[in-house]
Amino acid sequence: MRGLVAKISLGIIFAEIFLALLANFIAPYPYYRVDLENRLRPPSPTHILGTDPLGRDVFSRLVYALRISFAVAILSLAVALLIGTALGMVSAILGSVTDAVLSWIFDVVYAMPGFFIAIAILLIIGSGVMGTAAAISLTLTPIFFRLSRSAARGVLVKQYVEVAKALGASTLRIALNYVGRELMAVVIPAAVYMLSDAIALEATLSVVGLGVNPPTPSLGNMISEYKDYVFVAPWLVATPIAIIALTIASLNILAKELDKKLNAFLEAA
Amino acid sequence: MWLHILKKLFYVLLVVLTTTAVLYSVARLFPGDPITVLYGETTPSPDIRKLLEARLWLDKPIYAQLLLYWKRLFTGDWGVSIFSGEPVLTLILRRYINSLALALATTITTTALCVLLVYLSTVKGYDKIFTQLATVSTSMPAVLWGIVLMLVLALLKMPIPFGSIVMPLATLTIAGVGIFYTILKNLIEKAFSEPFIEMYRAVGMSRARLFIRALHYAMPVYVTAVLYRLGLIVAGAIATETLFSYPGMGKLLVDAFSSRDYPVLLGWSAMISSTLALLNIFGDLLHMYIDPRIREEK
Amino acid sequence: MNRKFLYLVILIIIAVLASYVSESFLTRRGASITITVPTTSTTVYLLSNPMQNATLRIALSTDISTIDIHYATGVADFEVLGNVYESLFRITYNGSKLAYIPWLVKEFKQLNDTAWLFVLRNGIMFQNGERLTAYDVKASLERSMRLSGIGKQLLTDAKGRPIISDIVIINDTAFIIMLREPFTPLIEHLAHLSTAIMPRDVALKYWNGPINSTQDVIGTGPFMLESYEKGSRAVLKRFDGYWGRKPAIQNLVYLILPDANARISAILSGSVDIATGVSPDMVNTLRAQGIEVYRVTGVRLVLVAINCLRIPDVRVRQALNYAINRSAIVKELMDGYAQVAMGIASPVFPDAAVLEPYNYNVSKARELIEEAGFAGKKLTLLVSTRSPKDVQLAQVVQQYLKAVGVDVEIVQMEHTAFLKRVFIDHDFDLAIYGPSPSSLYYALTYWRTNASLNGPQYSNPEVDVLLDRIAREVNESKRLELYRDVQEVIWRDAPAMWLYFEDVVVAARPSVKGLQILPFQKLVLDSMYIG
Question: Residue A45 falls within a domain, yes or no?
Fold first, then answer.
């Protein structure tokens, strides 16, 4: 049964990727087509998820939004996760000066409000998907750095690591084997849950001029635009949220499964 | 010992200087200045503009402005807000206390709730429901939870306490409990698979006591995560504060930025960066205390 | 399977709850569609209000940007500070037209073309206990002309020189305003709150910059500013020494709630008594819940400015005007809560001309664009992120222009950066904003060459000359003709796509009685009480 759940989760993720990639073919209407006479219509056969405040087809916007939001969220999360955990581990293992310098850098980044990071990136890289992803990943990196540094410090003093050290294992190997496994328990679920943060962040960045410009849809700007209509058209904001919830649930299940597989593999090895 | 403390203080100073420098340069390079804000769609005559520029130090190069602000930070006179004229120090302290109260309250309620839920799920076996709830909790950004809460109160015709801590606290707790529940549960589960727990179990320790052992094991990483979020809330839960018009640090930052109130921005940055740096040091110390082996290593 | 199933159940429960929530709001839709026409009879000042100790709580959508009335620019600034300060004259609204009536001034007389005598009312007190004198007026007006961006716009001529050459004080209550040249809209402009009167000491203390202490926010108005927490609330208290009709309420609390849902929830739950900035989409929901919705024709002209230096060809600018279906925007996007622009000044201004409309005409627009060789051009449209409605409007405009062969790219900007780009750097092709003038003449000065509010850098010497002539023309019927001419010229030159005049929509709980609303989105609390 667990296997089936994992398969369904995988199916959902693939379906979303599929929708995102083939948005041009799947969307029944252009995502930007304004139709003022048919605004705020509830779901119906012609518009399966209804229409938005400008009469645009919500389903069409949604499939395009998946494309942009997943691209931004996954790109930025992956970069933040990779850089954050790698540097966190390095910091914990090497200690002394490296630790001090890295901590300094990330303390400064952490103390910078998200939208100031966004402005800085905007001034350096400019607007667009890359700029947005860079800003979000920079905002999220300190948490991964801190978590992995803290987890790694805890693991590195454990008895069995001492034993491994005594047996002549290199620090890198120790790091990858023991620290990596420990991190899976914390950093991966944190990353999965950060997905909704990353998607929401993208929308807030549009306030300072980063993020995507209208009429291009993203899950974030759909939520921030549609939330003002919860009293008159609650289905509008429910749709992007349901998608995010579904994604997070599926990724959580998959992460667990992956963790289990990995553990089994490592134990066998 | 004293040398150690001195070193840490020097580190905090370094973080404060770097952060204020970066933040101020970014704010200055972004288009628009306080004079634009003051005049809106209109423009002042050239001589008035010159007068105001000199008054706000805008006629100097950015590094000179920054040095002037730094000098102010250390003399304790943080200047006054360009728009309300309130001394920056009192303004920031007031907002800071509000944010700190919110952050501490949120951390306490979230942690209490998480420990309870994890206890119920790992020891009593209510795992599945809580995992679903955790997903629901995290799938909506905090501001939407706030809107949902507001909607419920509006429907029940119950007055919404705008400006008080109640609504932001409830919102942030609901939005945060999911992620911390998952982190704590994973850590506890890991602990349960560790040899030392097996040993205790073999000795015949009760499940509840085993849970406390495991909790002790899970604490360092959990505390790191919780302190991280605490820092973020002290620095400002912008959307939630705005929604419930709670006068905290987040709203202060946004307003100071959108009105280009540089003295307030600088003060905000100094206050927050020093807090966060101290919080990190505190976290490291706590880490050592909770996990004695790290202390021994040092 | 179990997990997934549970998950689905939870989602469904949420969906059901959400629909229930909306349902309970929607079912009673139309149950009480009684359109409330605000009672705006001429106020009888002899009547005294029932004195109440009540607190009136008002939700604002934007924060005030300053505590200095001479620096006030936004709607919220005038709303809050307008309770503290008063001007020599006052703007009133009778439900269809604006009028300018003497306020702090008891009587006035035009001595000759360039000299006006004013006599102040007796016994007017400032909130610091001092008596209002002509010295205060002189200092305040001079400060306004010197510092205030709007004051400068109101009281300078086409060449940027102050229209007032001197203010001669006769005694404590009488003074003469000496003009450089005749200036017919003087009274209207002295009614603007940007020329509000403050104590002389305060005016001189802040001669070179904005007031920066709430202690020094002192006017002659019915309320005193007690405290102000930026981004959160402003608290005002009744001024018991007020010279005029004392307000019924004791405390006035402005809550700053930028989130639309927060304002709606606040008024539905009774957390506030009045909510401003109500979206037309919300009106039915509110009425179904027994909330009264007031609606007044507004002065805010929503337009898309066209940079005249980048698009100098008037045919293109006219074509852009023909490309927009204004009635569809008004009827659908604004739910009817707006008036299609039939001129460049709101119909609430006396003498605002109704001009030949730019009817929606795609083929004509295309023709003009082809003719001018503008087809296939790419333009950027700047929009400030402060107003979600503007961002939506930008997307509608984009679609209309695409249909006539002009590709538009929308660029969102933070508000201050937007102001700099549009009004200082003039670095844009198209930009959405909406000026809210207080008088017809003021509305027209936006389009004067090099005027600071002239974002699109429109310049037509004929307009400048006509504006000068209006200022000098004493004959009323001749002046009316000139007014019509200048409006016609600007309208045809099309330095902007004229879209619509936004209605002012305000929601109030049924207990709020006697509320009046001005077309500037300003609440009038004179005869307001809690019933």
Answer: no
pTM: 0.90
Which chain B residues touch C424 with a CB distance below 8 Å?
A: 36, 43
User: Residue ranges per domain, chain B?
Assistant: 94-258
Nearest to C336 by CA among C502, C453, C517: C502
- Nearest-neighbour CA in chain B from C400: distance (Å): 27
What's the CATH fold of domain B94-258? MetI-like fold (1.10.3720)
Tokens matching residue C334: 């604004």
DSSP lists the bridge partners of residue A84 as none
Residue range of the domain that includes A111: 2-23+57-268
* Of A112, A190, A200, Cβ closest to residue B183: A190
Sequence letter at residue A138 = L
Window 231-260 of C, Cβ < 8 Å to A? 259-260
Domain count within chain A = 1
Nearest residue of C to residue B51, measured between CA atoms: C208
Place of tokens 């605002």: C352
Can you say how many angstroms the Cα of residue C157 is from the centroid of all Cα atoms in its chain? 22
Q: What's the rounded Cα separation, in Å, for the pair C427 and C421?
A: 5
Gap between the Cα atoms of B250 and B232, Å rounded: 9
C-alpha span between B270 and B258 (Å, rounded): 19
User: Mind listing the pLDDT tens digit for each residue in C302-336?
Assistant: 999 999 999 999 999 999 999 999 999 999 999 99
Note whether A51 and A41 are within 8 A (CB): yes
Q: CB-based contacts of B112: which residues, under 8 Å, 6+ apart? A: none
B288 close to B295: Cβ distance less than 8 angstroms: yes
Q: What are phi and psi of C396, to 5 degrees?
A: -70, -45
Stretch C512-520: mean pLDDT: 94
Question: C195 — contact with chain A (CB < 8 Å)?
Answer: no
A70: domain CATH number is 1.10.3720.10
Beta bridge partners of B10: none
Of A200, A230, A252, the CB nearest to B135: A252
Q: Which two tokens stand for residue A202?
A: 């993208």
Query: Does residue A46 form part of some domain?
Result: no
Residue A29 lies in a domain: no
pLDDT tens-digit series, residues B26-40: 999 999 999 999 998
Which of C376, C378, C386, C394 is CA-nearest to residue C431? C394
Q: Cβ–Cβ of A103/B280 closer than 8 Å?
A: yes
C-beta separation of C264 from A227 below 8 A: no
Side chain identity at residue C495, one-letter code: P
Q: Which residue has the tokens 């890991």?
A: B190
Tally of CB atoms within 10 A around A32: 18
Is A50 inside a domain boundary? no
* Cα dist from A171 to A93, A177, A178, C302, whole Å: 8, 10, 10, 66
Q: Please report, for residues A53, A70, A184, C208, the alpha-carbon distance to residue A244 in angstroms, rounded to integers and kept in the order given.
A: 21, 10, 22, 53
Mutation target vs A (from B15, B18, B139; most A CBs, 10 A cutoff): B139
Neighbours of A4 (CB within 10 A): 12
